[in-house]
């Protein structure tokens, strides 16, 4: 069995992998000795300015106020397979059977702090960016989505890195 090898994901591949939006895990830093608080979330991504956008909902009894101003880490991970990669594999003679499910994995990690957009004027660049992305909606709440209150946030990352499996 080969060891896992990875290489840096070039910016153009990173942006293609993130697309206009999808799903990932947003983790809020917690107090010393405490595990981070992590949430699966939908996101929107504006590649031209490298910003992520979120519509988050916090139940009334949640600990949102304790963590919302803390540093965050946002992770998107997944297997990727495309016709171009399949062609590259056949040319290079890669053995697909050696890779899980025949897919190459990619991941992106962004860190920084969230900025709440709710009170910003509609002319602000951050709000305009939110309107330009497509944040997928999922039915994961105990009541209809239209009855759930959401707050808009932006992550302008202090750092953003991507990796992919070396083939």
From TrEMBL:
Domain of life, per lineage: Archaea
Coiled coil residues, start to end: none
UniProt biased composition (Basic and acidic residues): 90-103
InterPro entries: Pyridox_Oxase-rel, Split_barrel_FMN-bd
Database matches in Gene3D superfamilies: Electron Transport, Fmn-binding Protein, Chain A
Location of region: Disordered: 79-104
Name under which the protein is recorded: Flavin-nucleotide-binding protein
